[in-house]
Amino acid sequence: MTRASFRTNAGGEAIGYDPFSATVRANPFPYYAQLREQAPVHRLPGGLWVLSRYEDCAFALRNPDLFSSSGTRLMMMGGLQAGMMADIETLREARRRKQRELGLPPLLGTDEGWNENSLIALDPPAHEKIRHIVNRGFTPRQIQRLAPRVQAITDRTIDRILARGDRFDLTADFSMPIPLEVMAELLGVDAADGANFRRWSEMVIQGITGSVAVEGPDPLLRTLHEVAEYFLAVIEDRRKHPKDDLISLLVAAEESERLSPVETVNFAILLLAAGNETTTHLIDNAIATILDHPDQLASLRADPSLVEGWVEETLRYEGPVQLAFRQATRDVELHGHTIAKGDVVIVLFGAANRDPAMFPDPERYDIRRDAQGHMGFGFGVHFCLGASLARLEANVALETLLRRLPGLERTRATVDRFDSFLVRGPTCLPLRYERKAAR
Predict the structure, then answer these.
(1) Does residue 43 have a pLDDT over 90?
(2) Which of 164, 245, 300, 433 has the smallest CB count inside 10 Å?
């Protein structure tokens, strides 16, 4: 991946933030602080703008008429990798050409739209049309119905850990299987396909926001085609045999409110990738961070009712999604800078969540903090659709883990980071627990 020289702030100091750098991804927070303090509206080499203060990030996210989610579409099409810009039509033609080279036939007679026109890449009113439909699968009643199943899945997952000994990998053995199985139940697909779900979700995220994307689009395109074929088969089955699941709800909406098959599959892909990976990394980040703060862990053990606050503070302090992309629809003046029409803006959730203007003493991890207003689930019209489900899964999983596996501690000091400039979390987290006290 090529690197351009870094810009400087008004005082001539180098601004070292590069979202595509492994060094920055390992610990982005000092870079966030520098941006907030010295260059809150900063232009990267290559032309991308960066917003880092809470007020500015909120302004961009609550005004889709000024800052369009077409920036997300460009990212999902591979047009922002390493800061290199490309227009959407060029990207579409490149993808068509690559699909032909790979021998991937167009699905449903079109090779446009797969993963491009996802819910998170749409602006109002198109966004509202689809969100109104899919919201029905995430009502408080629907989420509450899932609570006993989340608890049962969590307990069964811990039973498997207990059967193997006092060491386990939190990611592979706990925080990945639980969201995968919950999502399978929500969608109404076979949980036995969990290995495929994990492979697909990791490739979708890494193929768009990781080093895989730099190496070329082939693995991502093959994966998207494979996932689309899988869900098209499920959709066809639900047309003939409707069930009480989200896919059946979406299929019914296709008939009554003209949700297209492409939109249905794109939403299923979004849930599979975003719903699984982000919840996995939320659980991982919560455990990794609390183990680094033994005083906070002691408070949790003394008062399990603090689990909800623990989850919210983790979303603020070490959220699994660090940023979003937007594109200016017209020239916008901000802090003396002109963000020109068509320019792409990086909105740094992770920096906004540690802005002292919003959160006092923001570098302190405090599970008793009032973290209301954090951007761990985004902000504005694109506030995470699955936030209530992610909160349910994280609260149940984390409370149960601490209760049933006491004495948790790391077996390795270093953390290998997930390969993504967007998603923050470990690839694995080896732990041990006190076997004699476990139950």
Answers:
(1) yes
(2) 164
